[in-house]
Design brief:
Layout (H helix, E strand, L loop, with lengths): L1 H6 L3 H5 L6 E3 L2 E4 L11 E4 L4 E4 L5 E2 L1 H9 L3 H12 L3 H7 L11 H16 L5 H10 L4 H6 L3 E3 L5 H9 L3 H6 L3 E3 L6 E3 L4 E7 L5 E8 L9 E3 L12 E2 L1 H11 L2 E4 L2 H9 L5 E4 L6 H8 L4 E4 L5 H16 L3 E5 L7 H8 L1 H10 L1 E3 H11 L6 H16 L4 H15 L3 H19 L23 H13 L5 H8 L9 H17 L9 H6 L4 H13 L10 H39 L4 H34 L1
Length: 629
């Protein structure tokens, strides 16, 4: 099953959902999704179906990537990719020894369980009123409700709690995820979400990561919307609602529509504007802008036209510009939001407004400052001009920057020279303001932990290079390594870990199959991070293509070359410790040792010379025998 999923999945397609890949020779490059960097160091190899992030040190195959991005376990990563590839995951569950009633011990499984429960409740008798609200009051169709997995949490203090007990869902998971709340005085648990329409919030891959809930209560003291609390699985600042359903359309249309609410996204998708997404109850963040940048360079703001909405768009403009995106703004007439506008006026009217009311970010800025009275006095005008030039300063493209300065000069009747001077004065301050403070979250690379071992030698690297490359041409080198494991000891700990892992893996398949091992998968399964990173670094630099196999004669030639390099490195590794000890003895003897030690040292030197000579003959004989075969 795992091999079937791997073979049915192209890592380029998967990674493209998370970062914007650009061709670079035989590889693809992108800015790291794990760190904040300006120069791309994230590389994907389509030939080897692996990735390597040189800024964070992370790397692996397509399963590893999904595990890193979605924060899921290996089995969950396999299931996600299987569903995407249209492969029946039932076979996989059975092969892994899972029973239908048995729940995976993970937070993500708990989230999926809760989402299914809320959705089932919405479509049951208990959810009739909520369903009628969505269809009759909000105009949603049954297909749209299913598409976004909407649900209902009934007005009960223990609905979720009782269902969890029945289905054997860990209560601690529900508490950690914010679905259950502990009463401080009574020290008891109760449902956090009650009498609310439930909006499952999903990752780009469609994995449930949290929930939003809209109240159906008429109590003015009840918050209209609440979201899941921040946790290891749910970070609002790094999510865009509806992105899992919108990403392909955004990429195709090269434009994203950014709205404020869940219902705005859903209404737009139902009306055919499937490139709409929303921030999850937060102002636009740099991380969300980076997500948009993976799919498009154009973003249309479609926020509410009140002061709060205008303020959010003014701030969001600078965030998008700083990430290399071009913002546009559409102001709907009156006090309507996209959801209410489409319901009252229809799709065609919305489409016309989307085109006729679209303005550049600069025109929007000027309009906002004029409406606020900032163009009436010199001191206020100066503040407005300073703010607008700071926005222009964030643009990285020099041609675009020049054009916007020219347009602003004409629109405000202020010389370009003056605007450029103002921009130069304020750009440094603006850049400092836009920098986000370190958060210490799990996406930031942790400082490398020191590993006490000998640095990797040239012979050890040559040894590993030949060993890894040889796996593309058969098991001959692995067979030799396995039969001589005791005499091969690498002083570098990660290198020894790689060697031991591959030898053990070979022993596991020897005699059972003629097929070689999947080296990318084996590297990704190495537990020691330093060893995994070293192996991936070596594999990335090897000129090997898995997709264009040479003919049998060339394969044999490549295999022989790998074996030759490997055996030469073996000879060096085997003899190196003895030669080092000999050099140390000679150094001590040349320093004039005490008489009592001199005889012992000479005897040891004689033994070493014999060992080196014997070992050299044995290894050379083995090498010649194998190469002559």
């Amino acid at each position: 099953m795992i091999d079937e999923v791997r073979q049915g999945t192209d890592i380029i397609d998967i990674v493209s959902d998370y970062v914007k890949l650009n061709p670079s020779g035989r590889h693809y490059k992108a800015l790291s999704p794990f760190t904040q960097e300006k120069t791309p160091s994230f590389i994907v190899s389509p030939d080897k179906q692996i990735f390597k992030c040189f800024s964070s040190g992370k790397g692996g195959n397509v399963f590893t990537f999904i595990m890193e991005m979605e924060k899921v376990t290996f089995p969950e990563a396999v299931e996600l990719l299987a569903k995407r590839a249209g492969i029946d995951v039932g076979k996989y569950r059975e092969a892994m020894g899972k029973q239908e009633e048995k729940k995976d011990d993970s937070r993500h499984e708990t989230l999926r369980w809760a989402a299914r429960l809320f959705n089932t409740t919405l479509e049951s008798d208990a959810g009739k009123k909520a369903y009628a609200y969505l269809t009759a009051n909000r105009g949603l169709e049954a297909g749209t409700i299913r598409k976004f997995g909407l649900g209902y949490a009934p007005e009960s203090w223990d609905f979720l709690l009782n269902a969890a007990a029945k289905d054997k869902i860990p209560v601690e998971h529900l508490t950690e995820l914010g679905l259950l709340t502990r009463h401080r005085l009574k020290d008891s648990l109760y449902d956090t979400l009650r009498l609310r329409i439930i909006f499952p919030i999903m990752t780009i891959a469609g994995q449930v990561t949290g929930f939003g809930g809209r109240t159906l209560s008429s109590d003015p003291e009840t918050p209209k919307y609440i979201n899941s609390p921040e946790s290891a699985t749910f970070e609002k600042s790094k999510l865009l609602y509806g992105m899992h359903a919108a990403k392909d359309v955004i990429r195709k249309q090269e434009t994203a529509i950014l709205v404020e609410g869940y219902m705005d996204v859903i209404a737009l998708h139902q009306a055919g504007f499937s490139n709409a997404v929303a921030s999850c109850g937060t102002s636009l963040t740099r991380y969300q802008a980076k997500i948009l940048k993976r799919y498009t360079s154009r973003v249309i703001f479609l926020y509410d036209g009140d002061n709060a909405g205008k303020k959010s768009m003014l701030a969001g403009i600078d965030i998008l510009l700083a990430e290399g995106l071009t913002p546009w703004v559409v102001m709907l007439p009156g006090a309507e939001d996209p959801d209410s506008f489409i319901r009252t006026r229809g799709k065609e009217a919305f489409e016309q407004v989307l085109e006729s009311e679209k303005s550049s970010f600069q025109d929007f800025q000027i309009r906002c400052y004029r409406d606020a009275g900032y163009m009436e006095t010199p001191d206020l005008t100066s503040k407005a001009v300073s703010a607008m030039t700071k926005s222009i300063a964030l643009i990285t493209d020099p041609v675009q920057k020049e054009i916007y300065i020219e347009e602003l000069s004409k629109k405000l009747d202020i010389s370009r020279k003056t605007l450029q001077k103002v921009m130069a004065t304020g750009s440094a301050e603006q850049q400092r303001h836009l920098k986000e403070p370190p958060t210490g979250n799990h996406d930031e690379p942790a400082p490398p932990s020191p590993v006490q071992n000998t640095p990797l030698s040239v012979s050890e690297r040559t040894f590993l290079e030949a060993l890894l490359e040889s796996t593309f041409y058969g098991n001959e080198v692995l067979a030799f390594a396995a039969s001589h494991e005791q005499m091969l000891r690498l002083s570098n700990h990660p290198a020894q870990t790689i060697f031991t892992h591959l030898v053990n893996r070979y022993r596991g398949i020897a005699g059972k199959t003629d097929q070689g091992i999947d080296i990318a998968a084996e590297i990704s399964s190495i537990e020691l991070p330093e060893a995994r990173d070293l192996a991936l670094d070596i594999l990335f630099r090897l000129p090997v293509s898995e997709t264009s196999r040479p003919n049998p004669a060339e394969t044999a030639q490549h295999a022989r070359r790998c074996l030759s390099h490997f055996l030469i490195a073996v000879k060096t590794i085997v003899l190196e410790p003895l030669q080092k000890e000999k050099a140390a003895l000679l150094s001590k003897l040349s320093g004039g040792p005490v008489k009592s030690e001199e005889k012992t040292l000479f005897m040891r030197l004689h033994e070493l010379n014999n060992q080196i000579r014997t070992m050299d003959q044995e290894v050379t004989g083995s090498i010649n025998t194998i190469l002559d075969a």
